[in-house]
């Protein structure tokens, strides 16, 4: 993923886009990778520190430490140190990166907790942060929002990219804007 972003930045003129306007999003394992990209030290790769303007990790895994006690760890071979090192919860985005963390209200409490905790830590560290917990959505159905241009998740991403203007004066959330999960 890092190499893909490096390539995009280096080939922006061929793709006819602004290399200073890169936004990342991903779902599930891609949500984890999205959070990793948002925390990346781009300056260490010779690029601007603010390379990623916004990130929208959707239903990501942000804290790997609970996996240590599972059968999956037979393959992962995580210990406390490696789990923390590989967990975006402990390596936050640079200040100024706009973060919108999305999860379905029908997800397990653990996935809701991880999404909420990551969004709270992002908010506390400075980046503009939103927690989008979507009513009636689970791991798979939250993706349906990407097929609806008026859905809250889609509108949030498009707004962060500067492709649509944010709603003005209490116009209400776009479709799919009902929440059941809350900041805690």
Write the topology of this structure.
Elements: H1 2-10, H2 12-15, E1 22-27, H3 29-39, E2 52-58, H4 73-76, H5 80-85, E3 98-104, H6 109-125, E4 129-134, H7 152-160
Parallel strand pairs: 1-2, 2-3, 3-4
Keywords:
single chain; alpha/beta; 7 helices; globular
The ordered H/E elements are HHEHEHHEHEH
SS class: alpha/beta
Give the averaged pLDDT, no decimals: 88
Radius of gyration: 17 Å
- The percent range for strand residues is 5-15%
Strand order of the largest sheet: 1-2-3-4
Q: How would you name the oligomeric state of the polypeptide chains in this document? A: single chain
Per DSSP, the total helix count is 7
Describe the largest sheet: 4 strands, parallel
- Distance between the terminal alpha carbons, to the nearest Å? 32 Å
The low-pLDDT segments are: 170-180
How much helical structure, as a percent, in the residues?
A: 25-40%
Molecular shape = globular
The number of distinct β-strands equals 4
Report on this structure.
The two termini are 32 Å apart. 35% of the residues are buried. This protein has 7 helices and 4 strands; from the N terminus they run ααβαβααβαβα. Strands 1-2-3-4 form a 4-stranded parallel β-sheet, sandwiched between helices. It has helices spanning 2-10, 12-15, 29-39, 73-76, 80-85, 109-125, 152-160, and strands spanning 22-27, 52-58, 98-104, 129-134. 33% of the residues lie in helices and 14% in strands. It is globular.
